[in-house]
Amino acid sequence: MVDIFSKKEGPRREDVVAKRIISENRQTIHRLADQISGGGFSRSRAAMTQAKEAPKSDGLSIHLLERTSRPAEPEPVLKISLNGRVVIMDANSGKQLVFLGEMRRKNGQKYFALATKKNGFFSPLDEETHDRLTEFDGVIIETRDIEDKFSDVMKDRLGL
């Protein structure tokens, strides 16, 4: 024997009765909820109502600033970063334009390694830049003063 249950149209009778009882006793339910939560129930309902409202300007003016013009030409500068990378970067955007090489250490001495395949770099310099900087490959940098002078001479060679 098989019992067939079919869903009738509309809500169940029990649901209608439960909704009616809740709506008739809403004030009592809210008062009890506030009493149990120490007023937190009413505060949370007020906060939800306030969050649904559209924000009011209260006399404030909102200005959207957009960048209207971009610098046409990058402003190249030489930079030796804290991790030893030597690059030419755009002073306006901070983007790296050319990777020249890096400062390395060998036997306690700091030296400059030009970005060449011989030094283990995947993307070597273009031929013109390589020719201008080839004599800097392997230069030992002993002090901060020498690094500053090294940087100045490299800027001159590159025309920066």
Structural summary, described in words:
By secondary structure, the protein is α+β, with helices and mostly antiparallel strands. The protein folds into two domains: 13-52, no CATH class; 76-158, no CATH class. Helix content is 37%, strand content 18%. It has five helices and four strands, in the order H-H-H-E-E-E-E-H-H. The chain has a four-stranded antiparallel β-sheet, covered by helices on one side. The longest helix is centred in the C-terminal third of the chain and has 15 residues, at 144-158. The radius of gyration is 37 Å and the shape is elongated. The N and C termini lie far apart (95 Å). The model has no long low-confidence stretch (mean pLDDT 84).
| Helix-residue proportion | 25-40%
Judged by helices, strands and strand pairing, the structural class is alpha+beta
Beta content: 15-25%
- Mean pLDDT, rounded to whole units? 84
Number of domains: 2
Low-confidence stretches: none
Sheet with the most strands: spatial strand order = 1-2-3-4
Number of continuous helical runs: 5
Run of helices and strands:
HHHEEEEHH
**Overall morphology:** elongated
Q: What profile does the largest beta sheet have? A: 4 strands, antiparallel
Rounded radius of gyration (Å): 37 Å
Count the E strands: 4
User: What distance separates the N and C termini?
Assistant: 95 Å
